[in-house]
Design goal:
Layout lengths: L5 E3 L2 E3 L6 E5 L7 H14 L3 E5 L6 H13 L6 E4 L4 H7 L5 E4 L8 H18 L2 E7 L5 H7 L3 H17 L5 E6 L3 H18 L6 E2 L7 H16 L6 E2 L10 H12 L7 E7 L2 E8 L2 H17 L5 E9 L5 E3 L4 H13 L8 E4 L10 H12 L6 E5 L5 H4 L5 E7 L2 E6 L2 E8 H14 L1
Parallel strand pairs: 3-4, 3-10, 4-5, 5-6, 6-7, 7-8, 9-10, 12-13, 15-16, 16-17
Antiparallel strand pairs: 1-2, 11-12, 13-14, 17-18, 18-19
Helix pairs in contact: 1-2, 3-4, 5-6, 6-7, 7-8, 8-10, 8-11, 10-11
Length: about 450
């Protein structure tokens, strides 16, 4: 899909540019030394853009120091300020970094006032040469939009188009757009609708694509690849972020794989495929276990999401750490990969479905450790959807599909949700997983 080209610092997004790989710090931006150390590590790992959370005006000063010190060290990776709610914080951040990520609908409950504040931000960005990412997530659309269109992919597209039209009407084109969801079906459909709508409108901005709150481990990687590759294979997507509940440097090899594959620098290790009815039989000769996982998810995720096939049979081999081939036919690993792929495409659930954010500077507890413990203790709850979220900024909204949710409040306290409703608040962290399990058992 042909898009406008947006300049963000020293890189271009869209307009025929290579796919840009980005990630996000999980440090507190106010902790300058920790954030600098992580930015250096992410730069060395290959991040082409780094996002930092900027919760309030008090974080502008450390943000400026981080930016200045990185540039003084010769690290020119563009920085993105992640803003929620505060238009004043967005305006000040836009004077410091190369890009701001905002959901303009969160600037004010009154839509007209939100529009006025967004117009102010646009003018500051124009003055300073700062790009904007309009970032709308499935769980944070706001009551005005959902009352009109429901909490649907259509609502996501309509919400984005409102702000896109406002940018064009103001003659501002340094814009990237994202419509993320944890549900791969919702995410893919929303981006497809938006791509068509922009083409019909006559102005096509670059798209930042990703599956939000994908979780961790193999499951998080497969889920991310299923959603992102489905779009990249159609030419939809100009920059990618793989959101894992792990150290952010772990995201970059997966995002890099996607960029290399869909910029045609890399090809699948699948050597043959046959389709019998709605069953695909795929044979691989993969150089590693990790590569097999990524190729398999990218090769068949879209076909499963779009219901072109119903099953995949995995054959062939991958090379182990010593370079020796490991056969796949009838193996436990082949069955495991197939189960994970079917779950990521939401075709068959063999375990609980987890929604977990990657963590950021707003997270006030050990998210990765907690998530792993929740997974361990709920592994028997097949088909249940359980969310573990770092904070209340996106947590309650992003886990809209969850049966149960664990959301950090700060101050070592947790709120437990059943569906969209809080059922236990201010629970001490040390008791929170036990309380979650107890509530689930009671039903």
């Amino acid at each position: 899909m042909a898009t406008r080209k947006v300049k963000v610092g020293n890189i271009g997004i869209g307009g025929g540019s290579p796919i840009v790989v980005q990630t996000m710090c999980n440090t507190h931006t106010s902790d300058v030394e920790a954030t600098l150390a992580q930015c250096r590590k992410l730069h060395e790992a290959g991040a082409q853009m780094i996002r930092l959370t900027v919760p309030g005006l008090q974080d502008i000063k450390p943000l400026r120091e981080i930016h200045e010190r990185l540039r003084s060290e010769g690290i020119d990776t563009p920085l993105v300020a992640d803003i929620h709610f505060s238009s004043e914080t967005a305006i000040e951040a836009a004077k410091v970094v190369e890009k701001v990520r905002i959901n303009p609908g969160n600037f004010h409950r009154d839509h007209q006032k939100a529009c006025e504040q967004f117009s102010r931000l646009v003018e500051v960005c124009r003055e300073h040469g700062t790009a904007i990412r309009i970032g709308l997530n499935h769980g944070s659309l706001g009551e005005r939009i959902t009352s009109l269109y429901g909490n649907t992919p259509l609502a996501m597209k309509e919400a984005a188009m409102e702000w896109i039209r406002m940018c064009v009407e103001n003659g501002f084109y340094d814009v990237v757009v994202s419509l993320k969801a944890s549900n791969t079906i919702v995410m893919v459909e929303a981006y497809r609708l938006l791509a068509r709508a922009m083409e019909e409108y006559g102005t096509v901005f670059p798209l930042h694509v990703g599956v939000t709150e994908a979780g961790n481990g193999d499951a998080g990687r497969i889920k991310s690849i299923v959603g992102i590759s489905s779009l990249l294979s159609e030419g939809i997507g100009d920059t990618v972020r793989v959101s894992l509940t792990e150290p952010p440097e772990n995201e970059i090899p997966v995002a890099g794989y996607l960029a290399d594959r869909y910029d045609r620098r890399l090809h699948s290790s699948m050597i043959s495929v046959g389709i019998d009815g709605k069953t695909a039989v795929a044979t691989y000769d993969s150089p590693s276990k990790e590569r097999l996982l990524m190729d398999f998810a990218a090769d068949f995720g879209k076909m499963l999401l779009d219901r072109k096939i119903d099953e995949v049979v995995l054959k062939g081999s991958y090379a182990d750490e010593d370079g020796k081939p490991v056969r796949l036919e009838g193996s436990q690993y082949a069955a495991y990969l197939t189960d994970e792929l079917m779950q990521a495409a939401r075709r068959r659930f063999y375990r609980p479905e987890y929604i977990a954010c990657p963590g950021c500077g707003r997270t006030m507890y050990n998210l990765e450790e907690t998530f792993n413990e929740v997974k361990r203790r709920t592994a028997h709850l097949k088909g249940m959807v359980i969310a573990v979220m770092g904070c209340i900024v996106n947590g309650p909204g992003e886990m809209a599909d969850a049966d149960w949710g664990y959301v950090g409040e700060g101050n070592r306290r947790v709120t437990i949700y059943r569906g969209k409703n809080p059922v236990a608040m201010h629970v001490p962290e040390t008791e929170a997983i036990d309380r979650l399990l107890s509530l689930i058992e009671k039903g």
